[in-house]
Amino acid sequence: MTDEQPSQDRPLQLIVMRHAKSDWGDHKLSDHERPLNARGNRDAPAMAGWMATNGLFPDVILSSSSTRTQQTVAALLECWSSKLNTAPTVSFTDALYLAIPEQIAATIRSDHCGARSLMIVAHNPGMSSIVSQLSGQSIEMPTAAVAVFDWPSQDGPGEWSRFSLNRQLSLTYLMRPKALGHASKDET
Description:
By secondary structure, the chain is of the alpha/beta class. It is built from 5 helices and 6 strands; from the N terminus they run βαβαβαβαββα. This is Phosphohistidine phosphatase.
């Protein structure tokens, strides 16, 4: 480990990402089946690159089971594959599909997997709502946006089982594809 802090003294890290931009072109597909569009296929790797540059590699990724979230996660993993010795553990769950913050929090509590760094990839309005609640400020999460929180931990990864929306966390990063110069003017 290259960090100066011993592992048990490092805060837990929660990475929240809204899926990349999806395609609305095929009206025969259900919402759950919609894939990424060209912009989404460009923005997801760009955000993965930004995360890699900042050393933001999760131990575990909990993702909605929708096609667009699965494709977003696949783009992240492909970008990180040459940078990591061990890929993050990934779990796709229907519980995060269009989930409200309370359901997202319940998923975090039940599927923490002993991770120091946990990533959630899901949908709005849940992503904007949970980021706003945890930061104590109103934050919109456009497609492919990433918010990173630090949570000082007394008990290490076991503390995920006590995750609560009532606890304000320290927002350490907030990045949108548009800020990287990879998205069009319409970022929603």
